[in-house]
Amino acid sequence: MRQDDVAQTLNYPIPSDAALDPPAGWARLREQCPVARVRLPSGDRASLLTRYDDVKQVLSDPRFTRQLDADDAARIAANESGGVFNSSMASTIPQSGEGHQRWRRMVGRWFTARRMAALKPGIEAMADRLIDDMVAQGHPADLKASLGFPLPVWVICDLLGVPDSDRDKFAYWSDTLLNLTRYTQAEIDAAQAEFVAYMGEHVAARRARPGDDLLSELSKGADAAGEPMPDGALVATGMGLLVAGHETTANMIGKMVAMLLADRRRWERLLADPSLVRSAVEEALRFDANPGFGMPRYLGEEVEIAGAVIPRGTTVVCSMAAANRDENAFEHAGEMRLDRVPNPHLTFGSGPHSCLGQALARTELQTVLEVLLRRLPSLELAVPAKDLRRVEGLAVGGLREVPVRW
């Protein structure tokens, strides 16, 4: 690929030949065009970053904001509202400054490593029950539908105090919120109206009859000043956590298992040495080439990145997945090394907007992997890895199904 070819405007997201493989162009972009021009699903233009240092800089730099509702910010999705990053839900929660830090402190108390450790026995017991059901139904089975999806839904619903029996509704509402090209504006509007109404009723019920859950605590006043969170912010927080708390982890469970089974030597190594589970999970998070859209940021002033001057008003898309394959940051970045330590991957972001739920995601992924290794040591993919199919049209990446047998 010539420099002129690399510099042309690319359609984004960049397609890949196989569901578990990175796009062939990532390495060339990092080497030849670290600030690439891209066309988003909306048709708007943005700049794509693929180098580790550049992505980390932008995610940590307060000059790059989440103000994606600015008049000159790029819309992400191919619908009028522009998708989850441009949504009213995103703007209801403070996106910067002390307001954002206060929100993070209030919510973050529920996602500490200590609290997650206390959840682990319950997560393990639920994983065992779901595997019991999957085994009883026989193989081949879809690991995503049987385990990857219901487990994180149960966990986040328990934290929020909402019934996981509504999980099919949550899945549809989440998908419409994460839309890039799959749904029409009418479908999105109807689904989001239902989602807001549902969460609004739940917030009102928590205020009237508080329980031992996150939304009840926030409604009572969970910060140092004892100030309760306003209804609009509570609804947006509940919606955001419900979407983020199950969608990304459900997809990651399937992708992690598929990556480990795609090369049987990886699975066998974990069976021989289960102490590698923690580092294997981190490496799966780094190695994931199908994470979805990436993280957009809006530039309120002119900034230089990788020797290029980025003008004010530019929307920048940070590809954490491409950055995680940067040979300048990770030795043998193109290899999945289950014992890679340290592993400073950017999958959960960096800086003041890094993922609040990363301790929960790590706990779920590690627990699921431990239980699968114990319960189903003979687990294998029921189709060739090259035949696995990507989730399409959403801001999150994943596999449509993960067919397995044992």
TrEMBL record:
**Record-linked Pfam families:** p450 (PF00067)
Q: Any idea which GO molecular function terms this record carries?
A: heme binding; iron ion binding; monooxygenase activity; oxidoreductase activity, acting on paired donors, with incorporation or reduction of molecular oxygen
Names of required cofactors: heme
Q: What is this protein called?
A: Cytochrome P450
Q: Which family does it belong to?
A: Belongs to the cytochrome P450 family.
Keywords assigned by UniProt, alphabetized: Heme, Iron, Metal-binding, Monooxygenase, Oxidoreductase
Q: Which InterPro entries match?
A: Cyt_P450, Cyt_P450_B, Cyt_P450_CS, Cyt_P450_sf
Top-rank taxon: Bacteria
